[in-house]
From TrEMBL:
GO MF assignments: glial cell-derived neurotrophic factor receptor binding; growth factor activity; receptor tyrosine kinase binding
SUPFAM superfamilies: Cystine-knot cytokines
Any one Gene Ontology BP term: nervous system development
Protein role: Growth factor that supports the survival of sensory and sympathetic peripheral neurons in culture and also supports the survival of dopaminergic neurons of the ventral mid-brain. Acts by binding to its coreceptor, GFRA3, leading to autophosphorylation and activation of the RET receptor. Strong attractant of gut hematopoietic cells thus promoting the formation Peyer's patch-like structures, a major component of the gut-associated lymphoid tissue.
Protein name as it appears in the record: Artemin
Main location, first listed in the record: secreted
Keyword Glycoprotein appears in the UniProt entry: yes
Gene Ontology CC terms: extracellular region
Source organism of this protein record: Mola mola
Amino acid sequence: VSVGHHIFSVKSVCSTPGWQEWGPNIRTRDPAAEDSPTDASGVGPSPDSIIPIPSRSRRSTPDSHCSLRSILLQVRDLGLGYDSDETVLFKYCGGTCPRVSSNHDLTLTNLLLSGVLPQPAPGELWHHTPCCRPTHHEDMAFLDNSHRWHRVEKLSAAGCSCVG
């Protein structure tokens, strides 16, 4: 975000409590899959090649789903360097997103576990869960303590969705 001669960047991190990025929670065999039905070709999946996705152990409450949230705070608390006592409504996205395994996710997991693809470098994250992110933003205008108007583009979220 560019404000005057200042450039602000936002780093977003997507994480879901209880999930580790390609960590020890990934198993290479699903005992329950041994009794799984066959596909249309008459060939069932090999139990040794199935990578199950961990399931959540607790039910999500409606408030925990991805949605638009808001908080009243002073402009100076936004951390953008403005001296303003004005109170604004800052909107942001928060909550959990359902884990849906695509064919790409399953293939990537198999390639990582088999060693065909190198493991991510330390500090490099390969996100395999959707993130609750803004889909639309809105500008915010406010008056500083010197009685000057400021407008910051795309500062507040206007809509949210699970992305990724």
